[in-house]
Write a structure and sequence with these properties.
The chain is of the alpha+beta class. It folds into three domains: about 5-245, 3-Layer(aba) Sandwich (Rossmann fold); about 275-315 and about 540-685, no CATH class; about 325-330 and about 345-535, no CATH class. The protein contains 22 helices and 23 strands. The strands form five sheets. A six-stranded mixed β-sheet has the order 6-7-8-3-9-10, sandwiched between helices. It has a six-stranded mixed barrel with strand order 14-15-20-17-19-18. Helix 10 runs parallel beside helix 20 (about 595-635), helix 10 (about 280-315) runs antiparallel to helix 21 and helix 18 packs parallel to helix 21 (about 650-675). The longest helix is centred in the last third of the chain and has 42 residues, at about 540-580.
Length: about 675
């Protein structure tokens, strides 16, 4: 007597839907022996498909017990059942159930992708086997066709090939000829006969008595119960095939090798790509939503960068970034070295020491000004101060250009030459409007000025005139002074001590901290006797920055909303996809897909779609940001210089966010797909 492949003992099955129950099977006892060919016959609605679902491990009995290879089904978990379906069972359904996006060959290979540890050797074997099956059943010319290019009979034969790929012990066919013409039916039935002859156990469901007549045993079902069992013909062939393989194969724990995972990922990507391509416009539109969301984040980040840059360039100029350090005698302001309480830092040794000490953090320069002087040109007189400039760079840092003339040369700086660059507002007062020399080109360059305060400072030659300097942030006198080399003042005024300094912090150094450090240092130098203060014109800019930050946060929030809307679109599409593919999911599960496989398919699809959207958004965002930056540099006069905007945070986050959206918004649809009941799925329209 052959061993039982599958055995049912007083099995019942009850459908529960929306609180209603329907008992589709009652007290069914059936024993399928290895190598048998059994037909299950009965009128429509009698419970044949329900029984086949039980036999195919797609559903569990509601009552009674059932065993497969003598192993009680109750003791097996879902993933073990899936593995059994994959390795030991083959299914053929009435309506072919090929995955429409996969070619014939890919369809046949489908079950192999659910094999846990599939190395490349195995997959080559599977491929060979698939091709051999196609050849055997005369389908080899169809390998690369898509299902919709096949006739019904061809589809069904392909479905049988697929069922045979994994060398099943038991082949279950639910009305395999139900949708075929008689010629195709004959071909399909001949295939089943062949398989049986080779030792495969075959169970076929049919309502056609002629089909049933081929079987060795006919089980008739009526109203969910076995009405009659008819033995006909010979008993199952003995030893035609090593029928029941070692049970160990099926019940051993799933090996979770990396190879298997790799295979799963590749297969998921393939399926996802095909599926997205099938619904091209839908995928594009849904992806567009996320694309806009991610793009808006990237653009917001890029605009933030542009705003920051422009802000720094427009407002945070070197003259604004400077701090001024002074000796806080009595909190009264004073200029220059004319004060009594503190003699200042000696220009030759103490000051250079201070400058050197902080040279890594910023440039410290003396801020040297005379008291008000009498300045005479041949045609006018002006009362103004002379302001010392230490080096050519200090002129550059004034953030303005010469209206005419030139800066002092390095030699003039070091020699202390009597050359002067006029502040923009001094010209009008120094030179009479009627002065005929005004007609000369680059007037008043070359004019000589006599400067007198208490004692005569000497005669200075005008070498240039500045454009108007911005005095919004401090230094209100900037346009009303004559700029002369520092050394000139030192030599003539003899203030060999500096008591007032300007500090330009290096890139990345905080002005306030540096000023604090310097005042503390100076105070310590005096043994704590003296107090120093600092004036930081840029303080107000911090408030503006705070304000900009608030605006950016608000805009970022709106961008986040866009992203969320895009993500919901993805989720919506994936839910629709799952609903559309219910049958396919059932099919995959019948072929042995674990819940994880199904989850991976759906997740991969949403991640892939999001990733594409993300990549596109990143590229578009980069271009858009730089176009915008270009626009800014062309239209805002003070920002002439084009600056590349990278917004690296936005770009990298764009990709990460797209992946996260794929995972996040795909999670629910994927979980829903994974939890679907395979038998219910196969029943879905
Ligand atoms: P057959 O394949 O013999 O035509 P089925 O096994 O498909 O019959 O169905 C058996 C009975 O169970 C039918 O009367 C059908 O209405 C009922 N049935 C099938 N699926 C469900 C379900 N999901 N919920 C409730 N009743 C169901
Ligand atoms: Mg049916």
């Amino acid at each position: 007597m052959n061993e039982a492949v599958i055995e049912l003992n007083s099995v019942g099955f009850t459908y529960v839907a929306k609180g209603l129950t329907f008992t589709a099977l009652k007290d069914v006892s059936l024993r399928i022996r290895a190598g048998e060919f059994v037909a299950i016959i009965g009128p429509s609605g009698s419970g044949k498909s329900t029984l086949l679902n039980l036999l195919g491990l797609l559903a569990r009995p509601s009552t009674g017990t059932m065993s497969i290879f003598s192993e009680p089904v109750e003791s097996l978990n879902d993933s073990q059942l899936a593995k059994l379906r994959n390795q030991a069972l083959g299914f053929v359904f009435q309506n072919f159930s090929l995955v429409s996006r996969l070619t014939v060959l890919e369809n046949i290979l489908l079950p192999s992708t659910f094999e846990g540890d599939l190395d490349s050797q195995r997959s080559i074997e599977h491929r060979k086997k698939a091709l051999a099956l196609l050849t055997r059943f005369g389908l080899d010319s169809l390998a690369d066709r898509l299902p919709h290019e096949l006739s019904g009979g061809q589809k069904q034969r392909v479905a049988i090939c697929r069922a045979l790929l994994m060398n099943p012990v038991l082949l279950l066919a639910d009305e395999p000829t139900g949708a075929l013409d008689s010629k195709s039916s004959q071909e399909v039935l001949a295939m089943l006969d062949d398989l049986h002859r080779e030792g495969c156990t075959v169970i076929i469901i049919t309502h056609d008595p002629d089909v049933a007549a081929r079987a060795q045993r006919i089980v008739s079902i009526r109203d969910g119960q076995i009405a009659q069992v008819e033995e006909q013909g010979a008993l199952p062939r003995e030893g035609a095939k090593e029928i029941v393989p070692t049970k160990r194969n099926f019940f051993s724990e799933e090996e979770k090798g990396w190879k298997g995972k790799q295979r799963l990922i590749v297969q998921s990507l393939l399926m996802a790509r095909r599926s997205l391509a099938t619904h091209r416009s839908r995928s594009l539109l849904t992806g567009l939503g996320l694309f806009i969301g991610i793009l808006s984040l990237i653009i917001i980040d890029g605009l933030g960068e542009i705003v920051q840059n422009s802000f720094n360039k427009l407002f945070f100029t070197s003259s604004v970034r400077k701090a001024f350090i002074y000796y806080d005698a009595d909190r009264g302001g004073f200029h220059g070295a004319r004060h009594s309480a503190w003699r200042g830092l000696h220009a030759q040794d103490e000051f250079p020491k201070l400058a050197q000490m902080f040279e890594k953090k910023g440039i410290i320069r003396p801020f040297l000004r005379t008291s008000i002087c009498q300045i005479k040109s041949p045609t006018g007189t002006l009362r103004a101060r002379l302001s010392g400039v230490s080096d050519p760079a200090e002129f550059i840092e004034m953030d303005t250009l010469l209206r005419t003339g030139r800066w002092p040369s390095a030699g003039e700086f070091s020699a202390g030459s009597t050359v002067a660059v006029l502040g923009s507002d001094t010209v009008e007062q120094l030179f009479d409007k009627a002065d005929p020399r005004r007609m000369e080109a680059n007037f008043p360059v070359g004019q000589r000025l006599v400067v007198d305060n208490c004692n005569t400072l000497g005669t200075f030659t005008v070498i240039g005139v500045l454009n108007k300097r911005d005095t919004t942030f401090g230094n209100r006198e900037a346009n009303d002074v004559l700029y002369v080399p520092n050394n000139t003042l030192l030599a003539r005024m003899g203030p060999t001590f500096y008591s007032w300094f300007s500090v330009l912090p290096n890139e990345g150094i905080d002005t306030r901290n540096l000023a604090q450090e310097i005042t503390t240092y100076l105070s310590l130098q005096s043994g704590g006797r003296l107090t120093f203060g600092s004036a930081i014109p840029a303080d107000i800019l911090d408030r503006v920055r705070g304000f900009l930050w608030i605006i950016q946060a608000i805009v970022g929030f709106i961008g986040g909303l866009c992203l969320f809307v895009g993500g919901v679109g993805i989720m919506n599409m994936m839910l629709v996809t799952v609903a559309e593919r219910t049958r396919e999911i059932g099919l995959l599960k019948s072929l042995g897909a674990q819940n994880n496989h199904v989850r991976a398919y759906i997740l991969t699809e949403s991640v892939l779609l999001c990733f594409w959207a993300g990549c596109l958004a990143v590229c578009t965002g980069f271009v858009a940001n730089n176009l915008f930056s270009f626009g800014v540099s062309s239209f805002v006069p003070m920002l002439r210089e084009f600056r590349w905007v990278f917004a690296p945070l936005g770009l990298s986050a764009g990709l990460l966010v797209s992946l996260a959206c794929g995972l996040g918004f795909g999670a629910l649809p994927a979980a829903r797909a994974a939890s679907l009941d395979p038998a219910e799925c196969l029943r879905a329209e």
